[in-house]
Amino acid sequence: MLSVIPNPARTALPIQGTDDLFPVRRVYCVGRNFAAHAREMGADPTREPPFFFMKPADALQVVPDGETVEHPYPPKTENYHHEVELVVAIAKGGRDIPVEEALDHVYGYGVGLDMTRRDLQDDAKALRRSWELGKASDLSGPVGTLKPASVIGHPAKGAITLSVDGAVRQKGDLSDMIWSVAEQIAYLSTYFALEPGDVIFAGTPEGVGAVTRGQTMVGAIEGVGEIRLTVV
């Protein structure tokens, strides 16, 4: 039996120290997981249950170590924002995963950006509509080379930063997350059966802001790596 159209390419992320790839199934993103960022978005940073939205797997953009990748400015926006995040790659699936076992399901970690058409997201919020037009544009999820947990462990603290043309805009620490990676995995698995190939964007610190064509973004997480992109 043949496919009636060419089979779409599957997004896959590079892995440090090998030519192997991590194929991506689903992309989950947690909202407002740093208290200071929640406040700058006008939300209450208390420890209420986390909420998630999704990006298509093919919205991810691969950013190999040591390279500066061109990142296209998307259409239909005049306010395109950066959000630097820890990306969690899931190797073992499951439902109702206990918090104390959640990190056993992680393959590794990377640096990612949740790029956002903020004006469209704000319009969606005002109209009580879903966020896809703001959050799921083409290549809106740049991700760097994955670092296996077997090599770097499970980072629970360390600086997370984003600079634009050399000026630091976002600066926080992984220890500032309201919901830890293990808690996010456990909570999410009560709503979805997690599967190998799923990735989670684990939230962004304060300082999100707009970028324009010609600017270069550098996202970095201590112990995980950095990614570099020029907006074109």
List keywords for this structure.
232 residues, alpha+beta, Fumarylacetoacetate hydrolase, domain 2, six-stranded mixed beta sheet, five-stranded mixed beta sheet, 6 helices, 18 strands, 16% helix, 34% strand, globular
Structure description:
The protein contains six helices and 18 strands. It has 232 residues and is α+β, with helices and mostly antiparallel strands. It has a single domain (24-231), classed as Alpha-Beta Complex (Fumarylacetoacetate hydrolase, domain 2), CATH 3.90.850. The chain starts with 11 loop residues before the first strand and ends with a strand.
Strand arrangement, major sheet: 4-3-15-8-9-12
- Average pLDDT over all residues: 95
- Please tell me the CATH architecture by its name: Alpha-Beta Complex
Q: Are there runs of 5+ residues with pLDDT below 50, and where?
A: none
> Mind summarizing the main beta sheet?
6 strands, mixed
Number of strands: 18
- Secondary-structure class: alpha+beta
Number of domains: 1
Helix content: 10-25%
Termini separation comes to 41 Å
Order of helices and strands: EEEHEEEEEHEEHHEEHEEHEEEE
CATH fold type? Fumarylacetoacetate hydrolase, domain 2
Count of alpha and pi helical runs: 6
Overall outline: globular
Q: List the quaternary state of the chains.
A: single chain
> Any idea what the CATH superfamily is called?
Fumarylacetoacetase-like, C-terminal domain
Provide the β-strand percentage band: 25-35%
Query: Radius of gyration, Cα only, in angstroms?
Result: 17 Å
CATH class: Alpha Beta
Domain Fumarylacetoacetase-like C-terminal: 27-232
Pfam families: FAA_hydrolase
GO molecular function: hydrolase activity
InterPro entries: Fumarylacetoacetase-like_C, Fumarylacetoacetase_C_sf
